[in-house]
Amino acid sequence: MRTAVPSNLSVLAVSIFGLALGEELWQAYIPAYLTALGASGVIVGLFGSSKDLLDSAYQYPGGRLTDRIGRRRALMLFTSMAMAGYAVYALATGWPLMFAGLLGVMAWKAGAFPATFAVIGDSLPRNRRATAFSVQSILVRVPRVIGAPLGGLAIASLGMLAGIRLCFVITLVVSVPCILLLPR
Question: CA 38, CA 25: separation in Å to the nearest integer?
């Protein structure tokens, strides 16, 4: 007999998919966007390195904060930080602002993952967790296949700056229901 997936996991899955899809609309085009904002090749490389550094640096504090304030509050905080980063990206008139936005954007990717893993661990019996973690990984990766071509269409239609800014706005719009429906 199959047991139903707890509703908080369903909401979490939809949120993860939605945010990942929104981010994948523009993620592949960040180097070109930085260049359009006046960044040199060295700055583009530094941006990528900073992204990787923040990805690793946010993991441990994200887990500690999740344990301290709870899963829902941590997910709300990290999603809000990411939304602030998306807004900074969309409004950036020069490449230095992109580094400020990166601090927020990376909060979702790195900070929220410990919280999502905790929700999965809390919601399912031990014998179903591996499958849930696999599904979570797929929900983050499938949008990569869909998002980049859609973002490319927006950029091809509107130009680099207007097209990628539209993609940032779409990501913000997708984030709103995600933050409102986070698991309890």
Answer: 21
SS (H, E, C) 28-50: HHHHHHHHHCCCCHHHHHHHHHH
CA pair distance 11, 7, nearest whole angstrom = 6
How far CA 133 is from CA of 23, 87, 117, 118, 153, in Å, comes to: 20, 30, 7, 11, 32
Helix ranges (H only) for the chain are: 7-24, 30-36, 41-69, 71-91, 96-106, 112-123, 126-158, 160-180
How far is CA 64 from each of CA 31, 117, 160, rounded to the nearest angstrom? 32, 13, 39
Task: Encode pLDDT of 14-71 as tens digits.
Answer: 888 888 899 999 999 999 999 999 999 999 999 999 999 998 888 888 888 888 998 8
- Residues belonging to the chain: 184
